[in-house]
Amino acid sequence: MDAITCSMYIFIFYLSHLQQTAVADNSSYIPSENIVLNCGSNTSEFVEYDGRNWNGDIASPYVPSNADTKSLIVRAPNTRQTIPEVPYMTARIFKSEFSYTFNVTPGPKFIRLHFYPASYLQLNISNAFLSVSASNFTLLRNFSVSLNADYLNLAYFMKEFIVHVSESVLELTFAPSYNASDAYAFVNGIEVVSMPLDLYIQGDYAPLPLVDHSNVVYIYNGSAMENFYRLNVGGEQIPPKYDTGMFRTWDTDEVYILGSNIGIQPSNISMPVLYADKAPPYSAPADVYRTSRSMSPFENGLVNLNYNLTWFFPVDSGFLYLVRLHFCEIDHDITKINQVVFTVFLNNQTAEEQFDLIAWSGGPGVAVHRDYVVMVPQVIEGKQDLWLDLHPYKDSKPMYYNAFLNGVEIFKLSNVGDKNLAGLNPPKSFKSGSDVKAPRVAKFNRSSKKLKFILIGCGLGAVVLPILLCLVLFGLKVIRPRRVMSWCGLAVHTPNQIEKSKSSFCLHTPNQSEKSKSSFCRHFSMREMKVATNDFNETLLVGTGGFGNVYKGSFDGGATYVAIKRANPMSEQGASEFETEILWLSQLRHNNLVSLLGYCNEDGEMILVYDFMANGTLYDHLHLRNRDQDHHPLSWIQRLEICIGVARGLHYLHTGTKHKVIHRDIKTTNILLNHNWVPKISDFGLSKEGYPSLVTTNVKGSIGYLDPACYQSHKLTEKSDLYSLGVVLLEVLSARPAVSQCEDDEHVNLAEWAMLCFENGCGEQIVDPNLEGNIVKECFEL
Question: Which reaction does it catalyse (predicted)?
Answer without folding.
Answer: L-seryl-[protein] + ATP = O-phospho-L-seryl-[protein] + ADP + H(+); L-threonyl-[protein] + ATP = O-phospho-L-threonyl-[protein] + ADP + H(+)
